[in-house]
Write a structure and sequence with these properties.
Layout: H1 5-20, E1 33-35, H2 46-52, H3 66-77, E2 85-92, E3 95-100, E4 105-111, E5 122-129, H4 134-146, H5 151-154, E6 159-164, H6 165-174, E7 183-189, H7 220-225, H8 240-251, E8 253-258, E9 261-264, E10 279-283, E11 286-291, E12 305-310, H9 315-321, E13 331-337, H10 342-361, E14 365-369, H11 374-384, E15 391-399, E16 416-420, E17 428-433, E18 438-446, E19 451-460, E20 463-468, E21 481-489, E22 492-500
Antiparallel strand pairs: 1-4, 2-3, 2-5, 3-4, 5-7, 6-7, 8-9, 10-11, 10-13, 11-12, 13-15, 14-15, 16-17, 17-20, 18-19, 18-21, 21-22
Helix pairs in contact: 3-4, 4-10, 8-10, 9-11
Length: 502
């Protein structure tokens, strides 16, 4: 659906508030700790931001305000982990900082200007544990890239971004890191940067896929705040429209071009588009290849179609090939490339996290699996009958979650809830914003709707924070997994998924 007229009025009001609230302040001078402003929520949908994302390679000038840095760092921390840990670094003209997503603070790592280019505002780099998990870094950097898109309209500063190998090389040489980053997003200001793109360019040449939507009802930051992530699915099949939308979000064409090459929803190292013709969709009745280029293969062309390779259900074989993937998803996307290099793994990570945002926007569930080994890759190739030259890099599962009447709500309302940290180990905090003097109830349920624990039943002030220590009503620690926090205030009910890990 198109953004309503009142939304545009709200944007104008928000722009005014930015100036009044000091959002345009430059970054503070170097300090051991910097308290970042809380991430803001814009008015643009997941689909709008994906359709408007551009990698801008140069022409930067000036600094960007701290709010843009805060949103980008927060976004980098939000994709569910593929490994054990993710380490987020930010470089400014004053120094290199560690970012702590729990406290939303920067801690000085090394002082001095270590930026790779003189006119950059800041850079964000991602390292991982295990060290070789570049696809997790890709997931984080993609969301950190998308996070600045809403500011194209809300501020005159026009932030732009590009993942750069020059930044990657400089960071690993001069940031004095204990573990190398996989890539660096470079951010700058550009007054001439293009704004939002509302035109659809991803149309099917053979009508094999319905046209995707380039606008939706789920705000980008809300989807990032609470992605619908889990590996247990209902048996309900996804529609072709839903599959089409996921394919577009993961690797579909958008209006921009780079050096005459048609751009996509995700970035690509030097616009190589390594996954072209190597994305497989596994569903009931078929294995299909997704194409975002026309049959000529010319990278200036745009398409949105699938090619059926096998007319039978291969999901059981895929599940047996890699038992650690979701065993119940109705649809799987297998992202492949011609090798398992860092650049290709990063690109697969972009795709997986982009598909997760889109799934969340449609109120369906997604789950990605990275860190594939050679044995798993070979088993997947054999299960799906795909070429030996197509190396599986990441698998994304999608479908309807097993939740009865309890669904996460991520649309704008008078009752707002957020959780941090999420995923969590020992404790998480639920922030609740509601109308004052309303009775607020908050309770935890498992995914089958079984009541685990009531957290609060009382009148609350407008803003309150409650904690859950991962225990049930008898004080017993619950198992790791996904739970639902359901909050009611007056007649309004909202729910959020909580992810407890080891």
């Amino acid at each position: 659906m198109k953004r309503r007229s009142f939304g545009k009025m709200m944007i104008m009001a928000a722009t005014s508030m930015i100036a009044k609230n000091g959002w345009s302040r430059p970054l503070k001078a170097a300090a051991s700790d910097i308290d970042l402003p809380s991430p803001t929520t814009g008015l643009h949908s997941v689909e709008e931001c994906l359709n408007s994302r551009v990698s801008t390679h140069g022409g930067y000038s000036g600094t960007l305000n701290q709010q843009i840095l805060a949103n980008a760092l927060w976004a980098a921390s939000r994709p569910p982990l593929m490994g054990v840990s993710r380490f987020i670094y930010a470089a400014t003209p004053d120094g290199v900082y560690n970012y702590d997503p729990v406290s939303h603070k920067l801690t000085l790592h090394t002082s001095g200007n270590k930026l790779s280019e003189s006119k950059l505002a800041f850079e964000i780099g991602i390292a991982t544990d295990p060290a070789g998990l570049a696809e997790d870094a890709g997931a984080a950097l993609h969301w950190a890239h998308l996070a600045i898109v809403p500011f194209l309209e809300n501020t005159s500063e026009k932030p732009v971004c590009c993942p750069k190998d020059s930044g990657y090389e400089n960071a690993n040489e001069s940031w004095n890191l204990s573990a190398n980053v996989h890539l660096v997003n470079c951010y700058g200001k550009m007054s001439s940067a293009s704004g939002f793109k509302t035109n659809l360019v991803a149309t099917s040449s053979d009508n094999s896929l319905p046209a995707p939507s380039v606008d939706g009802t789920t705000i980008l930051e809300n989807a990032m705040r609470e992605p619908i992530f889990g590996d247990e699915f209902s048996s309900e099949e996804l529609t072709l429209e839903e599959i089409s939308q996921l394919a577009w979000a993961a690797y579909g064409c958008t209006p921009h071009s780079i050096s005459s090459k048609a751009g996509l929803t995700v970035a690509s190292w030097n616009a190589k588009y390594y996954l072209t013709g190597r994305i497989y969709i596994v569903r009931s009745g078929s294995v299909d290849r997704y194409h975002m280029r026309q049959s000529s293969g010319d990278d200036s062309t745009r398409d949105h179609r699938i090619e059926q390779l096998i007319s039978e259900d291969r999901r059981a074989q895929l599940r047996s090939a890699v038992p650690r993937i979701s065993q119940s998803a109705p649809v799987y996307f297998v992202f492949c490339a011609d090798s398992t290099s860092r650049e290709r793994l990063l690109e697969a990570g972009y795709c997986g996290s982009s598909a997760l945002l889109q799934a969340t926007s449609m109120n369906i569930q997604g789950h990605y699996c990275g860190g594939l080994n050679d044995t798993e890759r070979t088993a997947m190739q054999q299960a799906l009958g795909i070429n030996d030259t197509d190396k599986p890099l990441l698998l994304f599962a999608a479908g309807k979650p097993i939740i009865s009447s309890i669904k996460p709500s991520i649309h704008k309302s008078s009752l707002m809830i957020s959780v941090s940290p999420n995923p969590f180990v020992n404790k998480t905090e639920i922030s609740i914003i509601s109308s004052p003097d309303q009775k607020v109830e908050a309770a935890i349920f498992d995914l089958k709707g079984k009541h685990i624990r009531t957290l609060v039943q009382s009148n609350q002030s407008k803003t309150s924070v409650i904690a859950w220590d991962g225990k049930d009503h008898k004080g017993r620690s619950v198992a790791t997994g996904t739970f639902v926090c359901r909050v009611s205030a007056g007649s309004t009910i909202r729910s959020i998924l909580l992810h407890k890990k080891k």
